[in-house]
Amino acid sequence: MDLVNHLEGRLLFAVPKKGRLLQAALNLLEGADIQFRRENRLDIALVKNLPIALVFLPAADIPTFVGEGRVDLGITGYDQVQEHDAGVRAVASARRQSGEWKHGEKAKPQGCDTVMELGFGACKLQVQVPVKGEYATGKDLIGKNIGTSFVHLAQEYFARLELEQEGLVDADASQLADRKLKTKIIELSGSVEAACALGVADGIVDLVESGETMKAAGLMAIDTVVDSSAILIKSKAPSNPEMVELIAARIGGVITAQKYVLCQYNVERTRLADATKITPGKRAPTVTSLEDEGWVAVSAMVEKKRIATVMDDLTTVGATDIIVLDIHNTRGSRA
Ligand SMILES: Nc1ncnc2c1ncn2[C@@H]1O[C@H](COP(=O)(O)OP(=O)(O)OP(=O)(O)O)[C@@H](O)[C@H]1O
Ligand SMILES: O=P(O)(O)OC[C@H]1O[C@H](OP(=O)(O)OP(=O)(O)O)[C@H](O)[C@@H]1O
């Protein structure tokens, strides 16, 4: 089947084609009942039960496709959106400085809107230097060689430090983009952590999650450029805004379900106020009278990560028959 000719009328939804975000993104699509079959080696898949086509793209390219309105929705890292935006500022700056930018010309309406955080892919883009070295702060690296895949964010980070050193604090985005750096930013496409040991760079700007890669390479973090996690983004003018809303509501429901459990217990009415302070629910707890006068049953959503403490505290205020249930899906309450 010629898939490209079947895209007409379908909302285009970009998903990372490989790497750290792929599996969690696929799990989210499954939870949202977005059904598709991806043919071997094809980067487009038609969704069977909705007028959507999935486009599998490198996470780094998704902000470009969504930002230019070629694709309506996308899942990628916040770091990638920030890098893309910094790249757009760098291009605008180059055009301004070369005189190509005409007076009064408006920037193209580029960029994307964040719909929601997705609760996975947490990591930090950090400035790293050799543990056994002479650098302790970002400023110590001014004028040095920096290896990174995030060239535009690194450029703006060092532009800020260089301008601060020259006495200009609070530089705006275009001043950062316009800066001719003393620091040399070296673009690397992977295995960035090897750059210092191999003598290519004095420091690097790279992603850190557990810190294992950094530690194994004999590096330590001295500053954070961006705190990131996976996000759902949409173009500024999606082809089908209702469908975007529907997908966002479904994905929001799955995320809430993953994040919360349902806690139910019985408690004496006299202790109800103490108990509901511990389980206020997302909006309010559901309280039902029991046959046994003086007792009530309470049911409330509780964040999964807090549930053990919540159960301890409920026991302390005299709650009994405490049970915790997994939530399969939700709607109408975003995470
Ligand atoms: N160690 C990590 N832990 C959590 N999230 C990460 C981690 N590394 C990267 N990410 C997130 O996943 C996104 C994609 O990174 P990943 O390294 O998987 O990309 P990729 O598409 O495989 O590209 P590359 O070929 O450059 O490795 C990053 O932008 C970041 O948001
Ligand atoms: O702090 P950690 O948990 O060790 O994770 C950090 C590593 O993960 C990412 O790389 P990835 O393994 O995705 O491969 P890459 O170097 O090819 O991008 C990132 O670029 C770091 O190298």
UniProtKB/TrEMBL annotation:
GO cellular component: cytoplasm
Compartment(s) of residence: Cytoplasm
GO biological process, one term: L-histidine biosynthetic process
EC number: 2.4.2.17
The Histidine biosynthesis HisG C-terminal domain, residue ranges: 257-329
Domain of life: Eukaryota
Protein name per UniProt: ATP phosphoribosyltransferase
Classification of source organism: Eukaryota, Fungi, Dikarya, Ascomycota, Pezizomycotina
